[in-house]
Design a protein that fits this description.
Order of helices and strands: EHEHEEHEHEHEHEHHHHEEEHHHHHH
Bound molecules: magnesium ion
Number of strands: 11
Number of helices: 16
CATH class of the largest domain: Mainly Alpha
Number of domains: 2
Shape: globular
Strand content: 15-25%
Radius of gyration: 20 Å
CATH topology of the largest domain: Rna Polymerase Sigma Factor, Chain: A
């Protein structure tokens, strides 16, 4: 028996990696559904290779046998022939599919961390209600899951998320402020989509991951720490109550966390993953986060601690500011400034309904655009 997998965002960075993994394990998994945003040609190539029963193109024309419109995400995620949903949709657009899949009792291999950041409590509630399960695809959270699996939750003392620090981790503050799009997209260790690559350069990504860890592993914010580790070899540390520390290591490659999210808690032999070599990995170094140079990090953690709809506003303001930076409308250093102005003005409410989350998201997007006008 093969397990049906839906890949949402199949032409993106996570989606294409997931299909490479799934292509190596056709005896175990079957691609039952594929959805993409607008890359029709690439989606056609994937459909020819995997023959999914369901195909959705969010920004497409109906009538080609493929579904169109954003509803296709929820449709794909809740199909009876789907057991695992790989959610690689970028940004807020992936939230409803995650909620629907969890309510339908599916495993969600979640690369869309924005989903948990915007609506962590709703996502947890949907999983409880429907019996679904969230398994993180983010390399740091996969590392933590791999370290804690087999241990009682009460044995966990704290986690230390590693951050590459992005391309500017050693730059002067003034130079960081003026960084260009090309410089921000030149990530030293990871090849990823544009939005997350900019988030890695501002360290907003690490703040999103702190909030993600809080919800995924039921940790207080005091239990989640961050250290800069430029080589991206150690994907995170876990400290237990006895002081013992475990870490998960490997060369940076998203295929391994994707494979683990599909098989957790089992492991599947895979000859497509590059084997580790400690000598080739070279010296491993660690530095504190320079919070003064990367204010988006502290702002995001502050939003997490505030709770309610504050993380949704942080995420929305960040998305809008990053898009403006990529379009050349604002300098790199302005991204964090926009986030700060939005968060300072936000009327925070409980994040207890999809409406409340969407309202905070829409308010923060509007406010961010007004500031940049
Ligand atoms: Mg990560």
């Amino acid at each position: 028996m093969t397990i049906g997998v839906a890949v949402l965002g199949s032409t993106g960075s996570i989606g294409t990696s997931a299909l490479k993994v799934l292509g190596r394990h056709r005896d175990r998994f079957r691609v039952a559904a594929l959805t993409a945003f607008g890359q029709r040609d690439e989606l056609e190539v994937q459909v020819a290779a995997f023959h999914p029963e369901f195909v959705g193109l969010v920004n497409g024309e109906p009538g080609s046998g493929w579904r169109a419109g954003s509803e296709c995400l929820v449709e794909a995620a809740t199909r009876p022939d789907v057991g695992i949903v790989v959610n690689g949709v970028v940004g807020a657009a992936g939230l409803e599919a995650t909620l629907a899949a969890l309510r339908a009792g599916k495993r969600v291999a979640l690369a869309n961390k924005e989903t948990l950041v915007m609506a962590g409590e709703l996502v947890q509630g949907a999983a409880r209600q429907g019996g679904g399960e969230i398994v993180a695809v983010d390399s740091e959270h996969s590392a933590i899951l791999q370290c804690v699996t087999g241990h009682r939750a009460s044995a966990l003392a704290r986690i230390i998320l590693t951050a590459s620090g992005g391309p500017f981790h050693a730059w002067e503050a003034e130079r960081v402020h003026r960084a260009t799009v090309a410089e921000a997209l030149n990530h030293p260790t990871w090849r990823m989509g544009r939005k997350i690559t900019v988030d890695s350069a501002t360290l907003a990504n690490k703040a999103l991951e702190v909030i993600e860890a809080h919800f995924l592993f039921d940790l207080a914010y005091e239990q989640v720490e961050v250290v800069v580790h430029p080589q991206s070899i150690i994907h995170s540390f876990v400290e237990f109550v006895d002081g013992s520390v475990l870490a998960q290591l490997g060369f940076p490659n998203m295929e391994l966390p994707i494979l683990y999210a599909l098989t957790h808690p089992e492991r599947l032999a895979d000859d497509g993953v590059v084997r580790f070599d400690p000598v080739a990995a070279g010296p491993l170094t660690f530095e504190p986060v320079r919070r003064d140079v990367f204010p988006a990090f502290a702002l995001g953690v502050r939003a997490g601690r505030t709770g309610g709809t504050a993380p949704a506003a942080f995420n929305a303001a960040n998305e809008v500011a990053v898009a403006a930076f990529l379009e050349g409308r604002i300098p790199f250093g302005r991204i964090a400034e926009v986030i700060e102005v939005v968060l300072d003005a936000q009327p925070v409410a409980p994040a207890d309904s999809l409406e409340a989350v969407h309202a905070a998201d829409a308010w923060a997007r509007r406010r961010a655009e007004e500031i940049m006008w």
